Amino acid sequence: MYGYVGSVLGEKGREVYSTSPAATVREAVHEMNERGVGALLVMEGDTIVGIFTERDVLRRVVGPGRHAAVTRVGEVMTPDPTTVPSSMHVEEAMRLMTEHRFRHLPIVDEGRLAGLVSIGDLTRLVSTYQQEHIQRMSEYIIGGEAVILRQ
Fold first, then answer.
1. How far apart are CA 79 and CA 56, in angstroms?
2. 56 phi and psi angles, rounded to 5 deg
3. Is residue 150 assigned to a domain?
4. Would residue 149 count as lying in a domain?
5. CA within 20 to 30 Å of 84's CA: 65, 122, 130, 145, which one?
6. Domain count across the chain
7. Angle of CA points 45, 48, 51, to nearest 5°
8. Residue 75 belongs to domain with CATH number
């Protein structure tokens, strides 16, 4: 109904920010803050070995009182994140993310990283689609200009 995850990548871009397992948490958090993102893929060469998120910082670093300057990302990342192909339907990706309680989903096609989407990216697409649908239905029913809903 809402299309494919690949179409979301087409709109938002395919750039993915990453770090290595050997980076310190402080370095990774600095990168996340500089880029304005909530997650970094943890890569060894072209291989995804984990994902490091804001939630990992809170639960595995701050909560237990670890030191960000000496703790390595590889010690506190979420290993082996779930990945999906760009051909997956948006609804299925949202269901997967909701059921497993994660907010970032790496997209992998034929063994190669294609991008990363967040639940916010998917929700924005669904919201835009619904807003357009409401406008078309209003125009059909009223026969004129529809009221545009503002977010």
1. 11
2. -60, -40
3. no
4. no
5. 130
6. 1
7. 125
8. 3.10.580.10
Residue found under tokens 């697409």:
125
Q: What is the pLDDT of residues 48-84, one digit of tens each?
A: 999 999 999 999 999 999 999 999 999 999 999 999 9
Which residue range(s) make up the domain with 26?
5-142
Residue 6 · residue 114 · CB < 8 Å? yes
Residues 90 and 8: their CA atoms lie apart, in Å, by 8
Supply angle C-alpha 32, 82, 74, rounded to 5. 50
The per-residue pLDDT for range 3-38, each reduced to its tens digit, is: 899 989 888 889 999 999 999 999 999 999 999 999
Show the 3-state SS of the chain. CCCEHHHHHHHHCCCCCEECCCCEHHHHHHHHHHHCCCEEEEEECCEEEEEEEHHHHHHHHHCCCCCCCCCEHHHHCEECCCCECCCCEHHHHHHHHHHHCCCEEEEEECCEEEEEEEHHHHHHHHHHHHHHHHHHHHHHHHCCCCCCCCC
Q: Backbone phi, then psi, for 117, in 5-degree steps?
A: -120, 150
Contact 40, 31 (CB under 8 A): yes
